Q: What sequence folds into this?
């Protein structure tokens, strides 16, 4: 089969491989729509080690091609959403960690691209299909379903980790696709005031459409100073973008008793430091949380239900649509360059 991925660090292109084999609990899926992600480009530049001949991509919907002999709820021909996190539900790490993201160790459940070939291919392998593949309801478009498998799941997890309650004032730092989903997640959990931090007109417009109360820009000065002037301090901060300086700024703008929830992927070379005063001398009950989105079928089914019953429309974050398998390099390059008008690209493979 053919796939698109990395031959080596900083070398991407077409890759020919054997079609993956289906184990007794597993499924082979033929992706029909995929979405290149900044995590894929990060991997291609060596962000998770010196991979070679690795097919990239971890966001897909598709048609089930084959299932193993022990699979009970999924059958060939089903249209499914493929979560970016597909745990091995038989290992103790799943039972020891509430998010199921770290089955055999940190990020262990992030198998697509993390430890095996991804979805930007003619076929992809999904382990433990009954527990990891979500059937797409008739009332949910495949494009909308595609946005649940990582963008909505990750963005909403920021709101969940922040433990937002009714009436909270929340800041979302970084309004790329994940941050925009964090805006939605914060509102769904009951935030009264959501302040989004971003500068690109396309993302600012979508943030406002999703219900952000205000949008501020780092171009207008330090964001912590701006937020403190507007609010005097906020209840919750979701960090969905920015570098180490954004971490410190988020901590600075929290009230005593507030929570900073991070869904931003820092680089291995980054160092996160902060003055003791920013953490209330260690005595202000400011919580710092960071995590990887939960995995599995039930997680995605819940997000699909929110779409099915009209709670939100994730397709507003799709900024570019490509058609055909051969468009994968162009879409990947757009994601890698982070074009000014980019939010989220998708590729209809068929």
A:
């Amino acid at each position: 089969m053919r796939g698109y991925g990395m031959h080596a660090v900083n070398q991407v292109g077409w890759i020919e491989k054997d079609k993956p084999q289906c184990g007794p609990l597993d499924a082979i899926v033929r992706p029909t729509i995929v979405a290149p992600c900044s995590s894929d480009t990060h991997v291609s530049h060596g962000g998770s080690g010196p991979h070679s001949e690795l097919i990239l991509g971890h966001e897909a919907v598709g048609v089930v091609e084959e299932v193993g002999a022990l699979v009970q709820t999924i059958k060939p021909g089903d249209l499914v959403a493929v979560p970016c996190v597909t745990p091995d539900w038989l290992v103790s790490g799943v039972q020891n960690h509430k998010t199921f993201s770290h089955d055999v160790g940190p990020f262990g459940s992030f198998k697509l691209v993390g430890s095996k070939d991804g979805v930007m291919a003619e076929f992809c392998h999904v382990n433990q299909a009954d527990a990891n593949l979500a059937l797409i309801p008739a009332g949910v478009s495949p494009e909308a379903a595609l946005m649940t498998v990582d963008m909505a799941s990750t963005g909403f997890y920021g709101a969940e980790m922040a433990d937002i309650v009714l009436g909270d004032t929340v800041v979302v730092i970084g309004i790329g696709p994940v941050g925009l989903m964090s805006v939605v997640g914060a509102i769904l959990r009951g935030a009264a005031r959501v302040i989004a931090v971003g500068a690109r007109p396309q993302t600012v417009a979508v943030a406002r459409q999703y219900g952000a109360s205000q949008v501020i820009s780092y171009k207008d000065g330090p964001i912590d100073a701006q937020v403190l002037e507007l609010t005097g301090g906020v209840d919750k901060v979701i960090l969905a973008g920015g570098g180490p300086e954004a971490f410190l700024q988020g901590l600075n703008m929290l009230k005593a008793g507030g929570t900073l929830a991070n869904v931003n992927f820092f680089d291995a070379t980054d160092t996160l430091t902060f003055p003791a005063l920013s953490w209330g001398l260690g005595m202000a009950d400011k919580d710092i949380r960071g995590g990887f989105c939960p995995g599995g079928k039930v997680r995605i089914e819940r997000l699909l239900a929110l779409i099915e019953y009209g709670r939100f429309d994730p397709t507003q974050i799709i900024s570019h649509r490509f058609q055909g398998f051969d468009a994968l390099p162009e879409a990947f390059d757009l994601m890698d360059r982070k074009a000014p008008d980019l939010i989220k690209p998708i590729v209809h493979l068929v």
In short: The first helix runs from residue 38 to 44. The radius of gyration is 20 Å.
